Amino acid sequence: MLSLVTAGIAPAIALLCYFYLKDEYEQEPVHMVVRCFLFGGLLVFPILFIQFAIVEEGLADSVYVQAFLKTALIEEFLKWFVVVAAVFHHMHFNQRYDGIVYATAVALGFASAENIIYLLANGMETAFLRAVFPVSSHALFGVIMGYYLGKAKFYKKKKILFLSYSFLLPFLLHGFYNFILLTQDKWVLYLIPFMIFLWLLSLRKIKKANKNQELFSRKSAAG
Within a 13 Å sphere around the CA of 30, how many CA atoms are in the beta-carbon half? Predict the structure, then answer.
C-alpha cells in the first residue's frame, strides 16, 4: 500500500519541484504551493462523481464526448476554477511566473490523487507509463494554464482574453491527448511526439514568463 502511494505521488512531487525551481526571481511560499497541491488532490472526488454521472446518464457514447467533455472539459475547468478562486487575487501572486507555479501545483495534486487511485486498481506495473504520460501531461497543461493566468493578472487591458486562453488552450490540448488514447491502437507512437511538443511549448512559456518578469522589473526600477 505504501509503495503504491509513494509511486503514485513521487512523479508529481518531482515535477512540481522542477517547475518551482525554474522561477528565476522570487519563489512562492511553500505553504501556498502545498495548499494548491492539496486543493488539486481534493478535486478528484467531485470530478469522479461528475464523470460517473455522465456515464450513467448515457451521455458519453461518442468518442468526442469522452475525450473533450467527460474528461478534458471537467478536469481543466475545475482546476482552472480552483486556481482563479484560491490564488489569482492573492497577494503572493505578484509575478508573471507565479501563475505557472500555482497552476502546476493544482494540476499535479489532482494527477497524484488520480494516479494513486489508478495504481491501487491496476497495480505497480503501470506506474512508469502513468508517470511519463498522464502525470506529465497534467503538469504541462498546468504550465500553459498558469502562463496565461500570469498574463491575465498583469495585462489588465487583455485580462478577459488571457483568462479565456488559460482555460481554452489546456482544455483543447487535453482533449486532443484523450482523443489519441481513445482512437489509436498504437497510441504510444502518437503520444510521444505530442508529449515532445507539449514539453517544448511549456519550456518556451516558462522562458517567456521569466523574461517578461525581468523586463517588468527593469521598467519598475527605471520608473
Answer: 3
